[in-house]
Specification:
The chain is built from 10 helices and no strands. The chain is an all-alpha fold and about 180 residues long.
């Protein structure tokens, strides 16, 4: 984990911002895409996040978690966006977002089953309420610690654990229900 103090001591400069922020770009975009369900909206969210972060970089506290700070800005930007305000229903991903299946030792049937299971899981995650979905994605996809999630979402550590537990339970129940129907 890179902390600002290690990079620049007490000076807050644009080059230090770039050094800290650019490695997070792909992770922030992935999180934004999961939240917004739309590539263009995700790109806009990340762009706005970087603009806000650079503008407010002088207010960042050296020695604190820069990654969590960036994710918090992204989340707040999402929550105030059109998509975040209406917390839109599930939107299918564009065809170009689908995983490309390469030829291999699998049979066509196993590939179809794997693809349908991935789609089922993705649909179940997208159906979760935003506060559950973001905690689950930050933990299981972005591999943040509970403490980082608490800092990112500005919630107590116990709330992080509670949301994760409830999100996983809801996800499990949704998948069980959908699998029972098939």
């Amino acid at each position: 984990m890179v902390y600002l103090k290690e990079v620049l001591g007490d000076r807050l400069t644009a080059s230090a911002f770039e050094e800290l922020a650019m490695p997070l770009f792909d992770q922030l975009y992935n999180f934004a895409h999961w939240l917004a369900h739309d590539r263009t909206e995700a790109e806009d969210l990340v762009q706005e996040t970087y603009a806000k972060a650079l503008k407010g970089f002088s207010s960042f506290q050296p020695g604190t978690n820069f990654r969590a700070w960036m994710y918090r800005i992204l989340r707040n930007t999402f929550l105030t966006s059109r998509t975040g305000l209406k917390a839109s229903a599930t939107v299918p991903l564009d065809a170009e977002d689908e995983i490309e299946i390469l030829a291999g030792p699998e049979t066509p049937e196993s590939i179809l089953i794997d693809h349908s299971q991935q789609h089922l899981l993705q649909t179940a995650i997208e159906a979760l309420p935003v506060h559950f979905r973001e905690a689950l994605l930050l933990c299981d996809v972005e591999e943040m610690s509970y403490q980082e999630i608490a800092e990112t979402l500005s919630i107590p550590l116990g709330t992080v654990m509670s949301r994760l537990s409830r999100a996983r339970k809801a996800l499990r129940e949704s998948l069980q229900h959908k699998l029972a129907r098939t």
